[in-house]
Specification:
heterodimer; A: alpha+beta; Rossmann fold; OB fold (Dihydrolipoamide Acetyltransferase, E2P); 2 domains; six-stranded mixed β-sheet; five-stranded antiparallel β-sheet; B: mainly alpha; ABC transporter involved in vitamin B12 uptake, BtuC
Chain lengths: ~350, ~325
């Protein structure tokens, strides 16, 4: 089928067994999320053909693997970014970028300049890999994977080997890839933050199986997500910058169903942004209180409730116009306020994390 | 590929070859040898006519084949060592890794005991080397793991097996006639090959070296690791198979030409890598030229140092080990 990546694999590996059946959109970033040992890297390696296993795989209608054929890795038009970048030590950055490029002369859908520009490595072209920082090396490795003009880009926790500062250095570049390229990306990660920032589509894995797959917003808003995000539970909203308040350095963001005020970090009106609202930052009130420090109060309807990790807590799913928010509160407040599905209520949003 | 270092090392080899042509029991002035060669090849230069038969005899008939032999053996062992080191991304690897030298020794020993003709012995040597590598590949294959570790272990097993077989042949050999021959051969010796053998082995050796030089760009890709190379579109299995085939071929042929000559295939690639870096496109040709020059120099020592010629395998070890200890300190340098 065109427009889709269809992957079905079964691979017994001792106690562990990979058993997945995925149909993913052939566009945007699909995050494969799960804890260590959940099989996400194995899945990525199967898709790359680095692991040979039973199953089938087709990318946008092209069969890469089925019962009769197995396209070896070197013949699959893909780019693979490993956790730790390994570059050719004897070649300059430019030489490294050109290396893979020479093998794919037939189609150049990503220009070398574009790859260099997107990753911001223009000033490094003449350097040798041993003169690069960890973050720079990884950016070169990503650019090299892009420069071969892949039809599918696979990224295996590209930030895992880097410290927090280096991660923050690279994330904006990854977001730019997301905006400017139409190559589908499969992104393996165990970081809820990276997933919230980058993904459009989410596959959640546990013990070799997929436990949820679907659009990011939909999956994150599920209460029964079998993987516990704990402190990181929350939703991601797509919003547009509606107005700026220069006096108080605030910006109003419109999302389907309402609007939120947030700190203005140099936003441009009309631009779309992605924001993350954590469940722990949302509290509930029966009335719209005037005398509160919380700026964002939204009318909402309780959709569903579910027990949280801790027996004293509960997760509440709220419908705010066309969007969904999650709120975390104690069982006791839920009882005292008599919060029940169907009730109308006010959601107080304490903080909003701007993701891009 | 950097042409400059290759040119420099080519000049080095030419100078060493010229010096080697003038050295020997009957010393000749270098200038006269150079003039003779110039006159012989392009018709320029002046040589005293009454010296011509002498020069013709010593330079062309006696010394040139020997020098070609040393160049072929040194070059082949070094290129094969450099290729193996790149393939296994390991500085400890030498051409004998997959058991080729042990296998060839067995072939040679067996030939000397049971076969009559020189040619049959050479053929047995070659087949022995190929058989040993075949065995190590087979052992690696049994476990169906396409990893380099399995290959290395397979090589160790195969090498040990064929070394044992050599000992068996030695015990069977006639201790007065055959055993000394075998022992002498295993020490490494450039005097054994005659002109026709050198020509017969020279062509495939040069072709093998050329093949490895053509694969040097692909070898670079493997130095990054299998999976990265594959994800960049490199056909890893094919390249590995070809490199092993060619490197095995040429190192077996060196055993036919000069017996077992150790250390060259380990030291020279290392030294070359330290001098010009890890890029195989330059490293392989420079290794070939440096290896040829080195073995020529060592051969000069082995034939001039004492009145009796010392087997070259002994000299390569005696000269090579201290030399290697000197450069070992910087051994990591060339890999970065």
């Amino acid at each position: 089928m065109t427009g889709q990546i269809l992957a079905r694999f079964t691979k017994p590996l001792g106690d562990f067994c990979l058993d997945v059946d995925l149909s993913l959109p052939h566009r945007g970033v699909t995050a494969i999320f799960g804890h260590s040992g959940s099989g996400k890297t194995t899945l990525l390696r199967c898709i790359a053909g680095l692991e040979r296993t039973e199953g089938s795989l087709s990318v946008n209608g092209e069969v890469w693997q089925d019962a009769n054929r197995f396209l070896p890795t070197h013949r699959r038009p893909l780019g693979y970014v490993f956790q730790e970048a390994s570059l050719f030590p004897h070649l300059s950055v430019l030489g490294n970028l050109n290396y893979g490029r020479k093998r794919t002369q037939q189609e150049h859908r990503v220009g070398l300049e574009q790859a260099v520009d997107l990753l911001g490595i223009g000033h490094l072209m003449d350097r040798k890999p041993d003169k690069l920082s960890g973050g720079e090396r990884q950016r070169v490795a990503i650019a090299r994977a892009l420069a071969v003009s892949p039809r599918l880009l696979l990224m295996d926790e590209p930030l895992a080997a880097l410290d927090l500062a280096r991660k923050q250095e690279i994330l904006p570049y990854l977001e730019r890839l997301h905006e400017h390229l139409d190559i589908p990306v499969l992104y393996v990660s165990h970081s809820p933050d990276e997933v919230a920032r980058l993904a459009d589509h989410l596959v959640v894995m546990e013990s070799g199986r997929t436990v949820a797959q679907g659009p990011l917003g939909e999956i994150l808003a599920r209460l029964d997500l079998p993987i516990h995000l704990g402190e990181d539970a929350g939703v991601v909203l797509e919003a547009t910058v509606a107005e700026l308040d220069p006096t108080w350095h605030l910006a109003r963001l419109n999302f389907p169903g309402g609007s939120l005020w947030t700190r203005d970090s140099g936003l441009t009106p009309g631009h779309s942004v992605r924001v993350r609202v954590l469940a722990r930052d949302v509290s509930l009130a029966l009335q719209h209180y005037e005398h509160t420090s919380i700026q964002n109060v939204l009318p909402a309807v309780v959709e569903a409730m579910a027990p949280d990790d801790h027996p004293g807590l509960t997760l509440v799913r709220l419908k705010v116009g066309g969007s969904v928010l999650l709120a975390r509160l104690t069982q006791r407040s839920a009882f005292t306020l008599d919060i029940q599905p169907g009730h109308s209520i006010f959601a107080q949003v304490k903080s909003v994390a701007l993701l891009e | 590929m950097k042409p400059l270092p290759i040119l420099l090392f080519f000049i080095l080899l030419a100078v060493v070859a010229l010096v080697s042509l003038s050295l020997g029991k009957f010393p000749l002035p270098i200038g006269e040898v150079a003039a003779f060669l110039a006159w012989k090849s392009v018709g320029l230069g002046h040589v005293q006519p009454d010296r011509l038969p002498l020069l013709e005899n010593i330079v062309l008939q006696i010394r040139l084949p020997r020098i070609l032999n040393a160049c072929l053996v040194g070059g082949a062992l070094s290129v094969s060592g450099a290729s193996y080191q790149a393939l296994f991304v390991n500085p400890l690897v030498s051409p004998g890794l997959l058991g080729v030298l042990a296998g060839a020794s067995f072939g040679a020993a067996l030939g000397m005991v049971f076969l009559k003709s020189w040619f049959a012995i050479q053929a047995a040597t070659f087949l022995g080397g190929v058989a040993a590598v075949g065995l190590s590949l087979f052992i690696a294959r049994i476990y169906q793991v396409r990893s380099t570790l399995m290959l290395v272990l397979g090589g160790i097993i195969s090498g040990a097996f064929f070394t044992a077989l050599v000992s068996i042949v030695k015990t069977l050999a006639d201790p007065y006639t055959q055993l000394p021959n075998i022992t002498f051969w295993l020490m490494g010796n450039l005097t054994l090959a005659d002109r026709s053998t050198i020509l017969r082995m020279g062509v495939p050796i040069l072709l093998g070296i050329l093949g490895l030089l053509l694969l040097s760009r692909q070898l670079n890709a493997l130095s990054m690791g299998d999976e990265e190379a594959r994800s960049l579109g490199v056909h890893v299995e094919w390249i590995r198979a070809l490199v092993i085939l060619l490197a095995t071929l040429i190192s077996t042929l060196t055993v036919v030409l000069g017996g077992i000559i150790g250390w060259v295939g380990l030291i020279i690639p290392h030294t070359a890598r330290m001098l010009i870096g890890p890029n195989n496109e330059t490293l392989l040709p420079v290794s070939a030229l440096l290896g040829a020059s080195y073995l020529l120099l060592v051969d000069d020592l082995s034939r001039t140092l004492f009145t009796v010629e010392v087997p070259i395998g002994i000299v390569t070890s005696l000269v090579g080990i201290p030399f290697f200890m000197l450069v070992m300190k910087n051994a990591r340098k060339g890999w970065q």
